Amino acid sequence: MTMAWLGWVGGGLIVLVGLAGLAAVVAPAFSGGAWSPTPMRVIRRLVHLTELRPGEALFDLGAGDGRVVCYVAGASEARVVGVELDPLKAALISSRIRRRGLDGRAEVVRASFFELDLREADVVFAYLSPASMERLRPKFEQELRSGARVATYRRPISGWTPWRREGELYVYRLPDSLSQRPQAGEPAAQASADSAAP
Ligand SMILES: C[S@@+](CC[C@H](N)C(=O)[O-])C[C@H]1O[C@@H](n2cnc3c(N)ncnc32)[C@H](O)[C@@H]1O
User: Fold this and answer.
1) Cα(9) to centroid of ligand 1, in Å?
2) Which of 60, 85, 87, 132 has the fewest CB within 10 Å, making it most exposed?
3) What atom in ligand 1 is closest to the CA of residue 36?
4) Ligand 1 neighbourhood includes 89 CB (under 6 angstroms)
5) What's residue 32's pLDDT?
């Protein structure tokens, strides 16, 4: 009887842990979008198109398998931060960073990008669901510094005018002048209108 009871409790615990693990892995698909990798040919254009400079920080919001994080850290002298909610993907990125000798230049933060402070970012990259992009837009306007760039793949930001565009890669630049930034409640379109665009 006691053994049977222990068996039930043990089995129940295993099921609970399994369900919790599954929920952690599936949750990002509902939060910001399911995993779908950006093609490497697009990622290779990112450093150039965003004019990422040595010492700047690039954040990949929803870092997936870490391809953006590892490529950009290897191809530039910038600091790269991958933000990933899925614990398995975050562990994979961490191990890729270590195996490629990119410690110190690249890191992964296991968190939701909706909760993360983006004020440190000079460049943000995002390939997410349209709903997430819509939710992130006011956060970008509030937190990103003047001159920061936002690059998105396949997801133009509604109301913003691209500074650059190459195929499905859109790059936006926050205005240099803080006075051009909208206050809460003003239309978002003004936030990205960069008169200094080439
Ligand atoms: C379309 S994939 C993009 C992956 C990678 N950035 C790339 O371009 O190859 C979106 C990623 O965002 C992650 N994600 C979804 N919601 C998230 C959230 N709220 N916070 C952090 N990561 C999230 C998913 O787990 C997935 O790996």
Assistant:
1) 35
2) 87
3) 1
4) yes
5) 72
